[in-house]
């Protein structure tokens, strides 16, 4: 890694082993983009990459100079009012109503390490030699405001981490109405854009389409990153595959309203921007006020999508996720939600825990319904004290009984929400986000607390601390079951209402920071109606998240496959649930449910006392298997092999490979039985081509076990996975829908 400034030419060059990022100081003092792609040899002058020539109808900056037009130049951080008529990265409104700005280069500094962002999640270093940072200061003299652009590159990671900060020194009152974390101009538009889109229950499905002239975007205006879009997109060449070709991804470390936008102009220049959504956003800038954008991460790969994803996985697993549980084995859990919903008592909970302990489960999680008088979803949110009708000995009592079994005890909270039928609402109705004179929208019969107010955050923190201080709770499931539709704070002035939604998520981060600092050994798992806030911002505080409320194995293949484009397996909460499945009513085999759930944090969501003896024995075997291969799954390099989005019969395959490439675990899934389709071979990835391997089906003996294969053969040809659906008349088990197979690949 290196960052170099060539003073004579005004060129900045940032590089790592596999990529280069190059930009320069333009003759008007602004910054111009030159190159982003495969690593180039450093040289003093790259300005020949800047093409500027006279073009009809182009607006020009300098009188008498018709060759220099900001409409044609590729920008590093575009602003309004200088002739560039594409989308801007920032916009500032002056007291006189003007919106123009002109940030010119003043200075820069290059240093080892990477600073934290105040109040925001971000990547980090454990020693200064792990990263190098470039900070560039630009000044708009008329606005008396600085713009500081920050770039960090990590040793061993082909990733570029970026953010922007505005510092206003003027006593005049300006309004920042748009502030992107990054902007990138590319010289052509020969890309396909992949986004992770969906709704509740089918989050983060990969959707790919060619770029077109105009704007294509992903976004959220729901007060959180949302089920609908994830703050991640990638651009790949049409010929790029999982293992070859050019691709780069952009990810935003933020959990609130966001915009990821790709604009193609009529000269086929592509502009990529990512940051806080400008709709409804304003930030008041006046003497001494600063505004810090969230951090965005760019990852480039010339070796296909798997290589891009693996960089995100390693960076987010080891330098975004933090704390006690980052590198530790997570306990196998059981959550009582689908077993009991809100209809439970202490005896029933302890009964489930006893059986779970017998089967090898390590953590019991009490979900929704334990507090206030919570018998349904119309009441009690905000009243974080035990319902004594259900739990006569309180949380500490039931926790004591479960921990005495030798299990850990976990608890569900929904800290950001309030019910109208609650003691909290009766005492503080103003704590709720709501617009004066309007009827507020509810979702799941609940409303949103105003986390832009410090006193509200403090109230919730103190309520949760009372329970966590007992020392009996070692896991917290942090839920968030509705979007924000009434983003108005009773405590904000008319001039500051545009700040409320950003301050709302800053309040969420502040609560997370407070609790994770005070209780560092408690395992926090983020959740938002399943996967509604599964984003990098949450990963900074909680090393794992509820990937989706849909626990059906067939549906989870697409959810987990799509999620893997950006997020590591170690972040994906994944459970074996009861059948018929509670979301889609599908019956999948116990084996298939586990084979999918293994590639995540792993646990159960069912009533183990209602399972037949055969399935209880299967659970014992599953837990033993998971423990044996947990480190490989959590820390191994993940490869996508066969996409469920492209398969006629719902075939999916993926694998994890150990760092030394001596061992791999392969998952193959087929949701629909084909008829006499012809033989199937499965190609692997990530193995040592010179090493000899044996392939073993975890559950059943197969012919392939009689052979050994060199790594190159397994990657170029693959091995035979044919069953009766693919031609041969086999009497063995892999027949019918919803089948799965796991293979261990080990060096001989």
* Main beta sheet strand tally, sense and closure: 10 strands, antiparallel
The total tally of domains equals 3
Q: Report the total helices.
A: 12
Under CATH, the topology of the largest domain can be stated as TIM Barrel
Sheet-strand content, in percent, reads: 25-35%
Topology:
Blueprint: E1 2-6, E2 11-15, E3 19-25, E4 31-38, E5 90-93, E6 104-112, E7 131-140, E8 145-154, E9 159-168, E10 174-186, E11 192-197, E12 205-210, E13 214-220, E14 229-236, E15 247-253, E16 258-264, E17 270-276, E18 283-285, E19 290-292, E20 295-301, H1 304-319, E21 333-335, H2 337-340, H3 346-359, E22 363-366, H4 394-403, E23 408-413, E24 417-418, H5 423-427, E25 447-448, H6 454-468, E26 475-478, H7 500-518, E27 523-526, H8 536-539, E28 544-546, H9 553-563, E29 572-573, E30 575-577, H10 590-597, E31 603-605, H11 613-635, E32 637-642, E33 651-657, E34 663-670, E35 681-682, E36 692-697, E37 709-710, H12 711-716, E38 719-720, E39 739-747
Parallel strand pairs: 21-22, 21-31, 22-23, 23-26, 26-27, 27-28, 28-29, 30-31
Antiparallel strand pairs: 1-2, 2-3, 3-4, 5-10, 6-7, 7-8, 8-9, 9-19, 9-20, 10-17, 10-18, 11-12, 11-14, 13-16, 14-15, 15-20, 16-17, 24-25, 32-33, 33-34, 34-39, 35-38, 36-37, 36-39
């Amino acid at each position: 890694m290196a960052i170099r400034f060539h003073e004579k030419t005004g060129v900045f060059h940032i590089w790592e082993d596999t990529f280069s990022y190059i930009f320069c100081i333009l003759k008007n003092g602004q910054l111009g983009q030159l190159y982003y792609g495969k690593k180039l040899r450093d040289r003093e002058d790259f300005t020949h990459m800047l093409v500027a020539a006279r073009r009809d109808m182009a607006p020009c900056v300098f009188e008498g100079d018709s060759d220099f037009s900001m409409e044609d130049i590729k920008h590093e951080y575009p602003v309004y009012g200088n002739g560039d008529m594409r989308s801007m990265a920032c916009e500032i409104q002056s007291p006189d109503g003007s919106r123009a700005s002109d940030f010119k280069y003043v200075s820069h500094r290059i240093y080892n390490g990477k600073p934290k962002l105040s109040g925001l999640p971000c990547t980090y270093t454990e020693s200064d030699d792990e990263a190098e940072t470039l900070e560039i200061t630009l000044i708009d003299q008329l606005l008396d405001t600085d713009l500081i652009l920050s770039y960090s590159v990590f040793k061993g990671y082909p990733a570029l981490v970026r953010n922007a900060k505005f510092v206003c020194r003027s006593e005049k009152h300006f309004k920042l109405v748009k502030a992107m974390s990054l902007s990138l101009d590319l010289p052509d538009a020969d890309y396909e854009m992949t986004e992770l889109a969906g709704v509740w229950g089918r989050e983060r499905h990969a959707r790919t389409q060619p770029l077109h002239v105009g704007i294509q975007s992903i976004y959220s205006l729901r007060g959180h990153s949302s089920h609908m879009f994830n703050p991640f997109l990638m651009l790949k060449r049409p010929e790029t595959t999982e293992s070859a070709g050019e691709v780069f991804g952009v990810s935003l470390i933020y959990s609130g309203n966001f915009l990821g936008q790709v604009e193609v102009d009529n000269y086929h220049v592509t502009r990529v921007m990512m940051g806080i959504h400008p709709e409804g956003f304003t930030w008041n800038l006046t003497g001494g006020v600063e505004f810090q954008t969230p951090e965005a991460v760019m990852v480039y790969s010339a070796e296909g999508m798997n290589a891009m994803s693996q960089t995100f996985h390693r960076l987010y697993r080891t330098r975004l996720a933090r704390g006690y549980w980052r590198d530790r084995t997570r306990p196998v859990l059981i959550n009582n939600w689908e077993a009991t919903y809100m209809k439970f008592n202490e005896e029933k909970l302890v009964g489930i825990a006893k059986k779970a302990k017998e089967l090898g489960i390590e953590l019991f999680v009490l979900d929704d319904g334990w507090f206030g008088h919570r018998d349904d979803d119309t009441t009690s949110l905000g009243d974080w004290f035990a319902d004594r009708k259900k739990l006569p000995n309180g949380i500490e009592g039931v926790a004591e009984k479960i921990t005495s079994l030798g299990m850990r005890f976990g608890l569900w909270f929904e800290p950001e929400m309030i019910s109208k039928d609650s003691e909290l609402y009766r005492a503080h109705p103003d704590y709720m986000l709501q617009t004066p004179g309007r009827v507020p929208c509810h979702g799941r019969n609940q409303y949103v607390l105003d986390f832009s107010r410090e006193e509200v955050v403090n109230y919730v923190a103190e309520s949760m601390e009372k329970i966590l201080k007992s020392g009996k709770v070692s896991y917290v499931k942090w839920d968030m079951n509705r979007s924000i539709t009434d983003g108005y704070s009773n405590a904000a002035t008319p001039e500051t209402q545009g700040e409320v939604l950003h301050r709302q998520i800053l309040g969420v981060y502040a609560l997370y920071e407070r609790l994770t600092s005070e209780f560092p050994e408690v395992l926090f798992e983020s959740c938002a109606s399943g996967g509604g806030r599964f984003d990098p911002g949450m990963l900074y505080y909680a090393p794992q998240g509820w990937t989706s409320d849909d626990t059906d194995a067939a549906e989870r293949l697409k959810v987990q496959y799509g999620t893997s484009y950006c997020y590591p397996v170690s972040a994906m909460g994944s459970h074996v649930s009861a059948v018929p499945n509670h979301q889609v009513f599908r019956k999948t085999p116990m084996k298939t449910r586990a084979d999918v759930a293994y590639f995540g944090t792993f646990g159960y969501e069912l009533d183990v006392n209602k399972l037949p003896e055969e399935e209880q024995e299967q659970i014992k075997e599953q837990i033993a298997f998971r423990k044996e291969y947990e480190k490989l799954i959590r820390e191994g390099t993940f490869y996508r092999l066969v996409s469920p989005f492209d398969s006629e019969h719902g075939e999916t395959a993926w694998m994890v490979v150990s760092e030394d490439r001596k061992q791999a675990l392969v998952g193959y899934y087929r949701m629909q039985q084909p008829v006499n389709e012809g033989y199937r071979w499965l190609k692997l990835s990530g193995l040592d081509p010179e090493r000899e391997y044996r392939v073993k089906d975890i559950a059943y003996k197969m012919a392939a076990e009689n052979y050994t294969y060199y790594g190159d053969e397994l990657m170029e040809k693959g091995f035979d996975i044919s069953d009766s659906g693919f031609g041969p008349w086999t009497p063995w088990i892999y027949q019918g829908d919803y089948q799965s197979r796991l293979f261990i690949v080990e060096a001989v």
